[in-house]
Amino acid sequence: DVSAQEIERPQLQVTDAEVDKTLDVLRKQRTTFAEVERAAQDGDRVVVDFTGRKDGVEFDGGKATDFPFVVGGGQMLKDFETAVLGLKAGESKTFDMTFPAEYHAENLAGQTVQFEVVVKKVEAPQLPEIDAEFAKSLGVADGDVAKMREEVKANLEREVKRRIQARIKEQVMNVLLDAHPIEVPKALVEQESQQLADNARKDFESRGMKTKDLPISTDWFTDQAVRRVKLGLIMSELVRSKELFAKPEQIRAIIEDFAASYEDPSEVVSWYYAQPERLAQAEALVVEDNVVAWVVGNAKATDKETSFEELMGNAA
User: Fold this and answer.
1) Distance (Å, rounded) from C-alpha 197 to C-alpha 107?
2) Would you state the pLDDT for residue 59?
3) Which of 76, 198, 260, 301 is disulfide-compatible with 80, CB 3.0–4.6 A?
4) Range 251-284 burial, b when 16+ CB lie within 10 A, else e
5) Confidence category of residue 258, pLDDT binned at 50, 70, 90
6) How far apart are CA 88 and CA 37, in angstroms?
7) What is the Cα 80 distance to its own chain's centre?
8) pTM, whole model, 2 decimals?
9) 3-state secondary structure string across the chain
10) Phi first, then psi: what are they for 26, rounded to 5°?
11) What is the pLDDT of residues 19-71, one digit of tens each?
């Protein structure tokens, strides 16, 4: 019985304002820089030589030549960036700077040093115009700006829908665990922990890390394994008792939704149906969605307006 459980359904309508915000992000990602003959401002890219000294002696890592960074971009410590503001190419400055107490280099953490910096180049950011060339860079072959906006909006709507569904699904899983406090077989937990450890090892290896000498313990994953085993058992019983099995038309719909963002959707659909394993992945997602829909339909579900920035997070 989940009738007493509360679930919030985030609500967000994608409007022209969200499309504009996304296009601004895409423009910034394509920023170029052009050299200017003026003092450095926030957002400019500067090329500098610098030398750092502690008690009059140069320290490791404190010297660089032709070093580029964007002022205000966070690549350098804030005090270093501030010192460069207002300098033109060819100008220099000597200043004291104190490293944060939590700085990663222990020999510099909390220490005051002196930097000498020479600005060699100042470059101002150039954002592309939203025109036919910009549309082409986003994959709109004919450069139609209106079509580009439609495609951006469609992609946003798919992503918003996905994130809302993920938020709801997380709440549903917590509801199922709260409503069914069960003990699970130790053997299943150990098996799931081993699987999670193997997945972690493969993930490290895919990133180019050697895991032969890396002690990855199954104990690290025990809590996660217990949760997954409990949810697996509870959901399996719910699917059986409430007949929440995936229907062929549901599987087709979710695959077509996956394929919609690709250049040739029909090719992606064929790729899924070519292998039973791929089809099984889509079927599992449909079953999860069916469980989520059942729980939401039987719990105390309320709609809650949410902002684009809050839902999208860093992606915004």
Assistant:
1) 36
2) 93
3) 76
4) beebbeebbeeeeeeeebbeebeeeeeeeeebbe
5) confident
6) 7
7) 29
8) 0.71
9) CCCCCEEEEEECCCCHHHHHHHHHHHHHHCCEEEECCCCCCCCCEEEEEEEEEECCEEEEEEEEEEEEEECCCCCCCHHHHHHHCCCCCCCEEEEEEECCCCCCCCCCCCCEEEEEEEEEEEEEEECCCCCHHHHHHCCCCCCCHHHHHHHHHHHHHHHHHHHHHHHHHHHHHHHHHHHCCCCCCHHHHHHHHHHHHHHHHHHHHHCCCCCCCCCCCHHHHHHHHHHHHHHHHHHHHHHHHHCCCCCHHHHHHHHHHHHCCCCCHHHHHHHHHCCHHHHHHHHHHHHHHHHHHHHHHHCEEEEEECCHHHHHHHHC
10) -65, -35
11) 999 999 999 999 999 999 999 999 999 999 999 999 999 998 899 999 999 99
Q: Which residues contact 65 (CB under 8 A, 6 or more apart)?
A: 49
What mean pLDDT do residues 268-284 have?
93
What are the structure tokens assigned to 298, written together? 């039987």
pLDDT, tens digit, 9 for 90 and up, residues 189-199: 999 999 999 99
Give the closest residue to 261 by CA, choosing from 157, 142, 125: 157
Residue that is written with structure tokens 């010192």 in the block: 83
